[in-house]
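Issue 218. Parser rejects a valid record. Input:
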Amino acid sequence: MPNEHVDPKSLAAAPPEDLQEHLAQLEKAGLVVRVDRAIDKDSELQPLVRMQFLGNLPESDRRAFLFTNVVDAKGRRYDMPVLLGALSASPKIYAMGMGCDVSQIGDAWVKAIANPIPPKIVKTGPVQEVVLTGEALAKAGGVSMLPVPVSTPGFDAAPYLTATLCVTKDPDTGIQNIGMYRAALKAKDRIAVRMVARPGGAGGYLHWLKYRERKERMPIAIALGGAPAVVYTSPQKLAIDADEMAIAGGLMGKAVEAVKCKTVDLIVPARCEIVVEGYIDTSVLEPEAPFGESNGYVALEAYNMPMTVTAITHRKNPLFSAIISQVTPSESSVIKKVAYEPLFLAHLQKTLAIKGVIKVALHEPLTNLRPVIFVQYAYGTPRAEVWRGMTGVSSFMAGVGKVVIAVSDDIDPSSVDAVLWSIAYRCNATDDVQVGPWRGGGQGSQYAVREGAPRSMESTLMIDATRKRPMPPLALPAKQYMERAETIWNELGLPPVKLTSPWHGYALGDWTDTWERFAQRTVAGDWEANGLETLARQRGGLEPETSVKKVE
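Output the parser choked on:
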């Protein structure tokens, strides 16, 4: 994977209008790995792309993967290429899908949510260049015609649609909802959809409840391969009654073109690659899963919503788009992280007016962003503001912020080692730890609560690990000496190293001019001058280890 590529900021002046345009921009930027050899979608495809998340590659080295020669376990060959990682393998790729720089992602979301642009209905679009219904759909093989990869080979019970835009409509208000829900292939004409990932009920689930009360089947359309800005709205935590296509219009700066489905009363983005239409029978549920989930465990079999497929429409030469999910870090965690963190920070800084807050970081590896959050503050921030900020973070979104840890500005929240060091030496558990009861259970909470306890109830843990007073320097060589060491290391041709924070020493307030003078003399070889100076300050009547500052 080469590091040299075109600056993405020079390529994406506006969000790409569809996935094919986005792919072309990624290829021009050197951010696509094209795999032309035969790859088994059932056992090889997802594990190969996952290597870049599990192999400790820097985010800047992650790529989208385009598979042009896809087969399955039985030797069937598909004429539809599969694209993974093109949505959010890295923040850089995500930003290109937004048509902005990484630093502008948060502001773009805030602006779009405040200024939605309703979709524009058009008569037809690329996604309906090919329409399969009835006998033609059956002859084509139904959903089996799609090269759907197995996400967690060895554990998943089916191939799953993952990068989904599941479109449903409130039967009372007519407002559509788009959610990114997993969908298991069950038969050529049947899919099982899970719509209950959101604490309190996802939009699609709330629609399902209304249709069940009416004793009616629920229309649903699953769009695949939309413009990135449209797809990014799907996992975003928006208001239940928000129209995601209107928010996508706000992101793109113009209305998203939408077409009416062929067999259900819904509209879908006109420039998607593929749409699967159908109805969910609200009178029955079907066992769904096991399936690897983003909380780090395999979700075991549970009853969810069966969908009968009535149509598949697609472009003449479609791309099949999927997403790397399950254990984080993953594509699905990046797609949330780059949008959530700026929104959390804006909530603290602007809505709650928290003083001293600098950064909000959602912990990604294994924990899946939601449970563990770090809040970074400027040194000297009043403790009342530290606690107000942690409380604000833990209550901003349901199911997010089970563990909130406050750190000072010298601690890199992305370094768990640095955070643990801060907890170890800057936190008094009696004064700096609070546990609050009656927290609603988030995703995966069933694994955390004790046996016999209410499944939905958890607690909130908040830790103030900020620096409360001046402290001695971090005991590593100062920055300039570590930088020199790195230069020599590389000149010697030693194995590449990846330095993680903290990788050099720095002062933390408890440091005098005298001690700085001693340090500079020592690296200059003049340490004996320090001995002469301390000789002049010898004193009697003291115990060993008496602090010098106490007797000066």
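Fixed in the parser; the record now loads. The chain has a mean pLDDT of 90.
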